[in-house]
Structure formats: structure tokens, C-alpha cells
Amino acid sequence: MPTGDPYKTLGLKSGASPDEIRQAYRQLVKKYHPDRNPSPSAAAQFIEIQAAYEQLNSGQIATAPSAVEQQYRAQQAQYDQDLAAYKQKRAAAREKLRQQKQQEEAYKIAYIQHLKSGKIGLWHRAVAFLGILLFMVLWIDFFLPAKQKPIRAAAYGLHSYGSVDDHLVQLFKSTDKRAFWVADYLTQNLPKTQDLRSIETPWLHQAKALTFHDGLYKQVVPIHFSFYWAQIWVSLLFLLPLLSWYFASADVIFVAGSFVSRYAIFGLQLWFLLSENRWIHLFTLGQL
Fold it and tell me: What DSSP designation does 144 have?
């Protein structure tokens, strides 16, 4: 069964070039392909377009539309079969991924419960409570009026070191076994000064500066590398155990926060309390 003039079917003039034939074919396929155009007339038109293109492309006698339709149906059936197999494999892969994520989530939840219960959970809560206490004490102590305490020189260093603000400093030790980093041009004069005192916080006795009388003038010597200047930032670290506990969830943030809280922050808390007898100052409210 002939298909008629193939050029007319494709909307071309007789003798059109191969490029013109391919371009016209592609445009008509986009318009009449059954996947794009569901109307019955479009399907029949598509078969005629396919037959005309095959005739012009091969240079042979026109193929009967029934043969073209049969070939198209066979190709479509194979395509539908392959698509169904692909969808089945994709559904199986998605189900496997869903089960894997469900198992991972169950493991995370179980691990979080393990961290929040028993000895580990008690340890974390204790560190969080101690962190809140130290945070409050540091901020209260920071804003309370400073006090002065008389000190006496025990020794001073001979070597100078660079401070963070490009000052040269030397180590100065007092008879109460405390050490201070002060400007190098002052350390050797401190043992000779009159009324040498430390300016410190009233509760934890954290030294802020040294003061003395130089003749008729009163001098204030800043202390370098002092914990006092970093205590605000350290106080924020003390809140990490509380934050990691409050925002606990089945993710790596809480797991890492719990580990850091129980070891790093707890170690920092112990160092803070045990150094310079701060635990004594804390429980005696600064009286000792």
C-alpha cells in the first residue's frame, strides 16, 4: 500500500536535500509522536510520516503503512517492557535505600539513648551543671568591683619574650607562688617599689594588673597572658555541654558534643578549678 508523495507528507518540495528531510522529519515527530500527542489522528499521521521518511532515506519504494505500524508497535512494546523492568529495579533500589536509612536512624536513636542514660548520661549532665555554675561565677566575678592585695617580689626573669601586642615581657614571681608576665622594663624594678599590690577580681582572685608607687606617682602595670583577659571566651566553652545536651538529636553534632564535653570541657573545668586554688576561692566566696 503506497503512502503517496513522501515529500508532500513531510511538507517539502520535490528534490529537497537530506538535511531538509531530516529537519522536517524531526519537527513532525515532535508534533505527532504518540508520547507527545495522544489523539488517534496524530498516531495515524505519525505512521505516515515515518513511512515517508524511510522511503526518502532509503531511496526505495514506499513501505506500506501497515508494515510501518507493525514495526512501530514492536518497538513500542520492547520500549514498554524495558521501561517496566527499569521501574521495577528503581523501586527495588529505593526500597533498599529506605531500609538502609531506617536502620541507620534506628542505630543513631539507640546510640543517643545510650549516651543520655546510665553513667555516660550522668557524667554529661554533671559537666553541664558545673559548666553553668562556672559560667555564672565568671561573669559575676568579672563585673564585681576589683580589689587590691599586697604582694611581695620573690623572683624575676632575665629573658624577654614577645607578647600578643608586640610588647616584650618578663616573668615576675611573687611570694604567694603566683607568676605574672609584665613589661620587661618594669620587672627588675618591681622588687624595689613601694606598696606593690595586685589588682584582682574579688571572688576568684584573678589578677588583672599590678600597681605600685613610683615616687609621687601611682603606676599600673598590665599583666600579659592572664587568664582574666580570656575568661569571657572560656566561659562560653563551659556552656557547650549544656547546649549539646539541650539540642540533642540523632546526628553527629550531639555525639561529637557529648564526647568533647565529657573529656575536653571536663578537663578544662578541672584545670581551671585546680590551678591557682580557684576551687578554694569558689567555695569560700573569695575569702580564702
Answer: S
